[in-house]
Batch of 4 targets.
Target 1
Amino acid sequence: MKLYDSTLAPNPRRVRIFMAEKGITCENIQVNIMEGENLDSDFLSINPRGLLPALVLDDGTVIDESVAICRYFEETCPEPPLMGTDAKSKAHIESRQRHMEFDGLSGAAEAFRNSFPGFSSRGMGGNVGTVNAIPALVDRGKNSLSRFYQSLDDHLGSAAYVAGDEFSIADITALCVVDFATFAARVPVPDACENVQRWHAEVSARPSASA
Amino acid sequence: MKLYDSTLAPNPRRVRIFMAEKGITCENIQVNIMEGENLDSDFLSINPRGLLPALVLDDGTVIDESVAICRYFEETCPEPPLMGTDAKSKAHIESRQRHMEFDGLSGAAEAFRNSFPGFSSRGMGGNVGTVNAIPALVDRGKNSLSRFYQSLDDHLGSAAYVAGDEFSIADITALCVVDFATFAARVPVPDACENVQRWHAEVSARPSASA
């Protein structure tokens, strides 16, 4: 089994943390997105969409999409559960995980991709040809992140974790969003969001966070 | 059990088709997005994010996010399976489902929301306050749809369905994307995409398509 990975990108990190929580290891192959290695024919022969991460099983099966890779590991290595244990908890965690993507990750990606000079003609990720950056998306993305932080703070005022009482894939996505928003989009957690600060310190202290 | 629904919107339709495939029925409450009923306090008390669909269980639990609602039904009513039956098929279908969202639904939504006059200050869906439309996203969305159609056509040249040999949630998302792209974003399936035309006619003939 091999994981095609890119250390600095938020999506591969989601999978690395998920694997670390379950104690799963495998061969790691680095693909440098900044230098466009994800658009080279070598990688496109693995994942024609040109996006990371991608998991290649021993039988040659390729699984792309972070959450789909996590699903594979949740099914093959159920302990500890990170995607719920019954119908309601599975649905709730999936819902919260998607909130973190749509409310947080999308905004951070908009703010970063449309302001980073190296991506001026790569306004969208992956194998999509030339897509010019749209400057108006920088502010839209930053505004999304402001709403995201406030909403997450409200939630964490009465819950230990993003999807309730237990650490889950929703926390993993949220952690990757916060760190990516801070370092790439330059929108850190506001000082007033004390619940997010508390939660962030806690999940960042887990050994998996450095995977 | 109650489904908060909006007939013309693509996301609630995904859930209606999923339910119809499994023979699940429940009370249906219409919320008119065009008139902004999804942003009224009545609906925000159900789903503070102001997005549809939302499912309310008999014990009062609210599940939002289309795919999370589908997950709940897949768990409580497994037949026929629409999200895979083992680790590899679950991961593959989840991956393909997400391709349909990111490559197709996002583009259709960008093209529609940023060109429809009634949404000039609602450039993003849900309870996000004023977000001005960004005209440059109309062409970006339409270009995404062109790539989406070509990629789907290539795939359907050697597979019956979006995720392989079996009808799945990935087909449901793709059907809703194609019909929404056609009628709302005005980007119909190109004549040259004969495989998409064949598949579209076939899945549209299923009784669930009119749910």
Target 2
Amino acid sequence: ALELMPGGASPPLRLSRARGQRHVLILGAGIGSLVAAMELQRAGYSVQVLESANRLGGRVLTVRGGDVIDEIGNRQVCQFDNDPNLYFNAGASRIPTIHHQLLRYCRELGVAMEPHINANYAAWLQYDNFRGGQRMRQREFIADARGLIAELASRTLSSATLDAPLTDADREKLRAFVTQFGDLDPSLRYKGSASRAGRLGTGGLFDHDGNKTPLTQAELLSSDYWQSAMQFGESEAQSAVLQPVGGMDMITRALAAQLPGRIQTDSQVIAIRTSDRKVEVTYRKDGATHTVSGDYCLDSIPGQLLSGVDNNFSNGFRKLLAKRPRGTISKVALQMGERFWEKEGVYGGISWTDRDIGQIQYPSHGYGQRKGILIGGYYLASGPATRFTTQTAEERIASALQQGEGLHPGYSKYFENGCSVAWHRMNHMLGCTARESDEETLKVLRQAEGRHYLLGDQISAHAGWIEAAVLAAHNVLNRLEEREAAGAA
Amino acid sequence: ALELMPGGASPPLRLSRARGQRHVLILGAGIGSLVAAMELQRAGYSVQVLESANRLGGRVLTVRGGDVIDEIGNRQVCQFDNDPNLYFNAGASRIPTIHHQLLRYCRELGVAMEPHINANYAAWLQYDNFRGGQRMRQREFIADARGLIAELASRTLSSATLDAPLTDADREKLRAFVTQFGDLDPSLRYKGSASRAGRLGTGGLFDHDGNKTPLTQAELLSSDYWQSAMQFGESEAQSAVLQPVGGMDMITRALAAQLPGRIQTDSQVIAIRTSDRKVEVTYRKDGATHTVSGDYCLDSIPGQLLSGVDNNFSNGFRKLLAKRPRGTISKVALQMGERFWEKEGVYGGISWTDRDIGQIQYPSHGYGQRKGILIGGYYLASGPATRFTTQTAEERIASALQQGEGLHPGYSKYFENGCSVAWHRMNHMLGCTARESDEETLKVLRQAEGRHYLLGDQISAHAGWIEAAVLAAHNVLNRLEEREAAGAA
């Protein structure tokens, strides 16, 4: 029989039917919460989702023309043209194909997917201390790096230091292996690679042509591109990577459509009282205060906000919440009047730089259309993010354009409008992707406080991906079900 | 100013206006011919395209339900369901983004493009002598191969054999470079890579988890995957790669739409008489014989067929035509009732095997739909192609399915119908991709015989790509224009 879940996919969640009337309060309406609500509802639980913002999706945020960006102290109204291709995935933007659970839901719910180009050999790198700050196609650097590594490796072929004794035939195979890997010449030297690094002139695609002169070892080492950007295409986000057609929030919409009447927005939780029998949640909506009660509460309110909600959690849990880190990832989006990058042969993917913007990302959709939205800066480290987000909205755009000129000299002239999102300043959020690797901390974050369970990627060892939030929901639901089966009620 | 043609793009063709009435006969209606006809027409030449088949596009052939495959001795009617996602690009199927000329025409003519996933780390490899013939995700092999190469390279760090003297700081950088490249541990050993090779179980995406045990050097060497398939994603078809939305023949259609009334199908050339003043071409259509005359003749009839057309070419040219090789590439397409591969996390790309089928290719479009068309075999070498194409249409399907079971155990049960194309047996073609690297031969193939010029990828040093046919057209048009400018008339 065909192996349908190979390569480490966990099986789909299969909840048993609810044992009698069970009402579950779910706080927050990110993807993890919506998945939990949908699965519980399917199993016969009644669910109520409370979301403090006036929108759903949490860090799945697709910004289109006319949308308000609710960043504290920096409210913006997006000025993009009204065009289905012109959107900005301000949070999550790509789905690795090893994210089996999320992709299963998308398949089930009919969320159309298309390829997301992540690693693009044709995109650029530009490092201020590398070759006078000039940009270069990534394919050149990558091919030359492989050549260098393979050439170094080839020098060990005749030595006696290999793990296992090699026969002559083995040694010959290893020599061929190294040669193929680096595109070395028969003398095991790397002298450039036309097919990998790109050709001189137009040659090679019609006439024969020579190789480009490879980068020297010193040149290769002088650019920080190899520190991580060069390996980005080898990582979890290696090809193939997907995106929903039309924007990441198509996932939110598809899940929400399964929960008619179960989701309340603009409902800010102000108190949580949990016990071994129930959980009471008090929230404010339209100026009034309401208290609701549930058999369980699944709570994806980010730790940094939850610690400010009146609660009766244990001291250990409260202490931990008060110390939760707040990720600072920020992005700026630029509407460009012309897709000039496609005329350069760059169709999607990422160009890399050591300037604060870090990268420029190109859309993987709408090829050949007139206009496009670039991610003009993706501020991952707290230094660049802080420098970026303390600027006004206008200054952010100006600095992103100025820095991006290294990758695209003159490109500011195509700029039409832009907007930016700083996750650690976004209302109802104040942070993102607090990646936690400490097992003890994870253990506390995952512990039930009475009938209250923390939800979201914040309880995962792999925060920052939707898949982590989905697996967190599954983990919590499995624990809830075990408790029910054990007769907790 | 922005550099609009960086990285080796040749400038667009700019023909001068025709000097008076000039009529050009164009033989064959592949992409190169259509580009030549369109460019000449734009410059004021009158053009007439004669095509022997009843369809346009040459080796740009998209097969849909109901289409006839005109293979000699093996006529087939494609049985695919009538669905825009269900098509088979039997010839050209992908466009590297360095193919600037073709992409410029597509942009100009509004041919919508989308990503084509070529290298997919999630796809499989299966070699009968590797690990008992069991399939493996390519990501595992690739990560472990990088690890091996990097670990070998790391052993040279302390030696004195490097090209340039290294400072301690340089050596430290090189150590980091090698470590990053291979994902080595601090002791410069490769012990597996969770982020690259994939994780054990579901771990790592929610809980921490360990690395898979890496392949040993002997295991790595035992699979021919590294001979070329492993490097396929580094080659000219490296990411990003494109495809026209809806099938490769959207390019043909867009070009043909520029040439209303200028193209005659079912018109088989039987004689060519060339001189220094004109070219006369005799062809048969609807049982009648016609002779037309042109100031020039641009001829993309494949060499192997042209040598059978009555002609007055020079002896040297005739001799060469008679010896033209005939490429044997063949493909089989399988309509599958379920896109089972997407449930395995394989969204496009290629799985590789050492069986005759060589590869299985998955569609990069229509994700999440119910059905899909697989390329169930791609017979590149003449041995496998000959074994394949001497079978009946039914035997081809059966053998492809049987061999593909190595990559997808049990997958035959999803099979609904299929068809195949053997280019060396296709009517009006009898070959494909005769790649020529001999400079002397290319020189003869490119020489004018009176007013007759050979056209098509067959005069390129890089045959087998549409871009080569486009550059060939540009090359011929530039020579024609020079001749006109020199007052050849």
Target 3
Amino acid sequence: MEFNREKIIVIGGNDAGLSAAGRAKRLRPDLEIIVIEKTPFIGYASCGFPYFISGRVMRKSVSGPSIEEIENRRGFQVWTNHEAVQLDLLKRHVAIKSLLNGEEKRVRFSKLVLATGARPLIPQAAKINADNIFTLRNFADAERLVNYIKTNSPQKALVLGAGFLGLEMAEALRQRGLQIVIIDQAPKLFQNYADKIAAIIEESIQSSSVELILDEKVAQFDIENNRVQNAHLVKNGITETDIVLLATGIEPNVALAKNARIPLGKSGAILVNNRQETRRMDIYAVGDCAESQHLVTKKSAWLPFAGIASKQGRVAGTNIAGKRMLFPGALGTAMAKTFGLEYGHTGLSLSQAREAGFNAIETVITAYSKSEYMTDATEITVALVSDLTTKKLLGAQVVGKADAGQRLNILATAIAGHISLHELEYLDFGYTPMISNIWDPIAIAGNAAQKKTKEK
Amino acid sequence: MEFNREKIIVIGGNDAGLSAAGRAKRLRPDLEIIVIEKTPFIGYASCGFPYFISGRVMRKSVSGPSIEEIENRRGFQVWTNHEAVQLDLLKRHVAIKSLLNGEEKRVRFSKLVLATGARPLIPQAAKINADNIFTLRNFADAERLVNYIKTNSPQKALVLGAGFLGLEMAEALRQRGLQIVIIDQAPKLFQNYADKIAAIIEESIQSSSVELILDEKVAQFDIENNRVQNAHLVKNGITETDIVLLATGIEPNVALAKNARIPLGKSGAILVNNRQETRRMDIYAVGDCAESQHLVTKKSAWLPFAGIASKQGRVAGTNIAGKRMLFPGALGTAMAKTFGLEYGHTGLSLSQAREAGFNAIETVITAYSKSEYMTDATEITVALVSDLTTKKLLGAQVVGKADAGQRLNILATAIAGHISLHELEYLDFGYTPMISNIWDPIAIAGNAAQKKTKEK
């Protein structure tokens, strides 16, 4: 019996991998499942790291469960500190190396899930060794940063990259009392966003005590005692810093797949179908290392977000267990809350829509989130990207002091439901002054977009 | 020229009527439009009355604009304190009576909009004259109550009806320091809601300092000096009270339509098509006096909610102005916030769905609204009513301390978009720990509903 038992190897022990392993084991308790994880941690809450670093949440809230917890509760094995170094698709085994003692062994598999995630993109100038340069991808990274702050009490931080992570980390470090400079090489914050939305977010940073410098890069770091002391900026001279945080984007971690000649998509992430199967039999890919079907373009796209990772994991796990389950596609919806604002995007931006060949327009409106006579009413700004041809929604961005995030999810639902701009204006939302408004910002946005489609 | 000028009469000067008049005038400034309003007030914010009564918002926030404001800003005429008493469809005139001096005149019209709203249903025992019995339908009602409270400083209030208005008013009066008893004749709070949702709302009332008595009615009121002193309850003896608030439901105000033989729907409200036209040429009906196409049953239904009223008004105004505009249908989405909870419903309840002939099931889940490690994370309970045959959503109810209202609007959007339960589980929501969770309560609800459809 044991000899023929199906053996599932999952490479990567964060959201996507654990989701695949857990679902497969739940549906088929007879499966032998081993999750291989390079770091000492599994199932850590990456999106919560900024709140761990700011001190708002505790270590155990974001460090993930212990191996014992997983093994006892969910019934599959976990090998942390192990790296999958080579994949043999013909012989169906994977070479796994212990990062503790360097030993390598081959493990056979019936099915294999690639959940290798993504890794930080490091700007040229930062490809150096220094104790005070940090990335923030896994829990070991987060812990290293927290420990460094506790031990060295840095006063100044330089954050490279003004995306979601950069801004969240700028705020977290500010809350720990550090002076912050954020630089980004783009001339505009959130380049894909409507100008007004980006301007509102920029204003929230400028009006906090954080310095934001756009259209700027680090030319070189001065290092002393293995620590960065200064950053030479291309345009703005030299800035002193005690720590450097790199938040300059990520790339899919696909070396293992690539070496095994598993086809990648245009983005460089692994191509999968809607069962999360790669182009190679019995090899699945999920999460940040894989592409997804984009619900708007209907094309394969790289959408490395935690929600998608968990969902793809669930789909892969279900299919591995022999039940058919399809991933319905994704929009790349993402949101953040920094410096008093909630904001985010779903679907295509105006430029993405035009690149994808849509006859697209952008409309932007601002309206009260709830009855304006309520003292806590605040404004929400909604940008819609609409298709002039079909009069449907292609994408959206939203920003506001409150309730903007859930509005974004309403728009994601509207796109998934192929709702027309006319229907968007007339969606039957519940109204009560403490929560909403008679004409919701979304209805007003739908009205504005419709008007513009008629002008054209 | 003046002789042939088109003349639009709108009967009713609240949301629906003003929305129709405003839209028609904006599109066709040449139209002569007169809005007839029985009370001294127009465009008052009925849903905000509880907050005016509690003292949280000011009079001017809910009393509506002045006639001058409307006439100057929006360009149509308003006759307050005037009642339309008879409608002659053949001769195309309406008899209008001044409630100030009793004078009556006939006004001819080219098109007429019925926006006569709804009126409170008065329980038999309350069909009496007393200075301290209140309904709360128009601003005059609200002002009478506020003035009575200021002048007489009542200590005890009896609220009849534990629906949205009853609970909102119980809380408002409690905030003014009154002791509150709410009674409702139904044996269960929110009878149409899933048991767990209703129980959570009931618990919020019981744990506040408000007494809720279900399965109870007033048999008789004791009146002295034109004031109710006591209420004789059928089962619970005599209760003293200083004021009585009636919140026992509403009925459509259709006497004018009925006398003119304009066809009504099964609900007793006026039948309209999706251009808001009644079955009589050039006569429109909008708002609480009219029915709507229900998006789920595809049948005409009475859905007397403010959001729908404004939208129907806009549709009627657009069509009156000669541009085609269709009302896409409604779900009867409604929400409230009382005693620390947000809650509401959209679409059909389980019993409504079964009555309408659907093979319906109900599933209820509870999950965190945002990452549970955030200190302000609270639970949301979602009940879904799903169709076993199509595996789609028919309705939903939601309750939670925060963010439940917007979740309800997401579900309303999902129903409008005909999203399947499978898609609901996989909707691509944005995730960030401060706002949301990797598996949103809505995704978890979609998963639970799907599981149950598979068991059946």
Target 4
Amino acid sequence: MARVESVLGVDIGGTNTVLGFVDRKGRLIVDASMRTEAHQPATVFFERLHEAAETLRETTDEECELLGIGIGAPNANYFKGTIESPPNLSWEFVDVVGETKKHFSVPVSVTNDANAAALGEMLFGAARGMRDFIVITLGTGLGSGIVANGELIYGADSFAGEIGHTIVDPSGRECGCGRRGCLETYASASGLCRTVQELICTSSEPSRLRRVDFLHLTSRMVFEAAQQGDRLALEAFEMTGRILGMKLADSVAHTSPEAIILVGGLAAAGDLIFKPTKRSLEEHLMGIYKNKVKLLPSGLVEDNTAVLGASALIWNSLGKRPRSRNLVASMTG
Amino acid sequence: MARVESVLGVDIGGTNTVLGFVDRKGRLIVDASMRTEAHQPATVFFERLHEAAETLRETTDEECELLGIGIGAPNANYFKGTIESPPNLSWEFVDVVGETKKHFSVPVSVTNDANAAALGEMLFGAARGMRDFIVITLGTGLGSGIVANGELIYGADSFAGEIGHTIVDPSGRECGCGRRGCLETYASASGLCRTVQELICTSSEPSRLRRVDFLHLTSRMVFEAAQQGDRLALEAFEMTGRILGMKLADSVAHTSPEAIILVGGLAAAGDLIFKPTKRSLEEHLMGIYKNKVKLLPSGLVEDNTAVLGASALIWNSLGKRPRSRNLVASMTG
């Protein structure tokens, strides 16, 4: 049986948790999905995670030597190894590293999904070889991971990189964070739907989306309408990109990245979101930054980008110090 | 004669250039000022700088062993060692490091004044022991130096840290950078004067400042009026702090600093600027950052903070590698 060094990448979501073994080059050896079942205590979850990993390791014809476990989770504190009051999970406070180490005797790290995505792009994707870049995850919300001088920025408290909560308009749309006008209320899948609703009020443009009520409207519907030339849907993408590009110009003025990488569901809309974002970014950039900053899609080829990103948390730290034998441990029960 | 290891710090300004020898602890051993005379070729300037440094070294009763030269200058490119089209200097492009090395055989580095200020605070001032902080220089404009993971962020092209050119209002005040609504058009000495002018139009508040025309109005006059209770002047400081605090909340969402340090002429207004800035910062911060970020004045005790900051550029790099004898060179002519 072929022996391969691997890291277990885990992405904990509100409904499902995905896990997989990833090799040093970012190849997903094997992966699986399990229900998170966050209504049960976290200790039960980590027992089930251990079982799932053991089972998964047996399904592959390669012998996965486990070097570490990287975990992506909402509201993760990298410094403390915890998650705190995560949205969509009923756990209040979980010592993720401690709970995981009850079952595995390898290094364990946890960070939020956008930071994991940034490390994934740096090691295996569009940011290979870059020392300064920003990853923006455009999902239901807007997450971000900022890399400067070749290092992910965690900041003083590990909560750096919340570009989704920079302010577009202090009297603007209500945000889940309790404030108003945050970027993610405009530039995200849900923000796109809110913009459609705004345009339904403010413009007279006929649109098939006028027949869909707000609770049933999805960014996929807006995408499909736009693809078929629905002008209101096209305008919604245009407005989304305009606001996103304007605020990303502020981000460039902070860290002067070589590239900004847009990933996640809304980024999959391709030109519909990239073109207006790029146009607005260049329009709002200060002269010294113009025509320098690349706007790129994800460079990850595997489907399971969240697992790759989570594994990169460990691969990145292993890459920084000389290989030591005592990091090579096998799974324990 | 006492022998002391020193770095020559140089701050090149539009009118005057200040220089001084600084020891490892940030003590200014001796300093002087010379006219920049930027109408003459840059080569002449660097010859005069060399003469001034030689003369200065002879005026002290300590023998200054020169370990390096740190230079702060507008539009400096740290990576290339150059300054390019600096405002208020008629030089188009200057190879600062190359020109300086014609006269000195020690390491030479150049960066902009806000980055130098950040390194000065990190080594000798309010940010000692911090790994994540931001320095904001409130002068005629608004400069910034961002430190994350213990390193100054230069970004892909060395032009990171232009928080003064993040956008408050895309249809707002015209900025010297050619765009509209940049933070420095509101939060700076000149921004404060523009705000006074705006309040003269929009409010009916009586004020002694109504008698001063725009070209003669200075931030010092606004400060003195505010100290004497002039309500329009007080409101101008209030508005300045409100806008500054709001945009600094965006900066916190990028790098999650332990502290933001306000330095420069306008910061010397003390509570008049710190109080509204702090209030607005806390109001606009996302929940996870509230009541965590310190807002501090400069911690540099010497008068000549620009020279200290410039010297810190060298002291910081020397601190990162083991002392090597070949770094210790003496001045050559």
